[in-house]
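Appendix C reproduces, verbatim, an entry submitted by the partner laboratory led by Prof. M.T., so that reviewers can inspect both the input and the predicted structure.
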Amino acid sequence: MKKFEDIYEGMELPAEIAEKYKEICQCLHDIEELTGESEFGNVLELEGEDWDYYCELRSCLVQVITDVVKKQDQAFDFQVVSRHFGNDDFWEEIGREVSDQTQNFLSMQPLRRSGLEERRKHYKDIFTILYTEYENANYAGEKLGLDKKVAALYVRLLRFSEDFVINHYLSRRLFALRLDSYCGLQEDADFLWELYSEKRGEIEKIALNNRLNDLNYRLFKLTSQLEDLQENLEFMEYLVMKNSQTE
């Protein structure tokens, strides 16, 4: 059974991060003991309490890796542990779940690297551009001299704030928690919450329209996917019938 020190030999890690990596190794050790092999190849054969325990360990593993990603502010290196535990299918699923929980956080890295006062200025300026001038991210970037991708991040964060403060009437406390989980900018929460709360009456109609447009877009995407599925099913049915006729 591989020890933490063997797996991460020679790596200098801050104490807090090292503890997280030890938790990751412990989860993997426990899964190894449960399945009886380091590749976890027979995990689908587990039943009852063993399966429940495996699911618990797996969820814990995803959460700890997610915590590591957010603390280190970088994608997790799966290669180190995957050489000692698990198999390709196992790590592919784990990687996908971790990505789902961290992709927004990592994408907001350019904003976290800027100063609080700079972000507040851009929030206020882009807020005006969105709700008074009715313009978009590209225009905001050009007007403020921001990179298009950075401007798009500001707009996405403002839309996030709009949805939770205006549409869902989230409290200041809960909004701060959501913002921290979403992008790690909890220190910006009070400013954004007050910005939207103070202007609620002016932007409620705009926010409702934005939400309807978003729902319509999602419905359109879903309809297109269902149509594609229907076409595939019809084609498969045609192939089956043709094969039957040939036989």
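The longest helix spans residues 200-246. Additional entries are available on request from the coordinating office.
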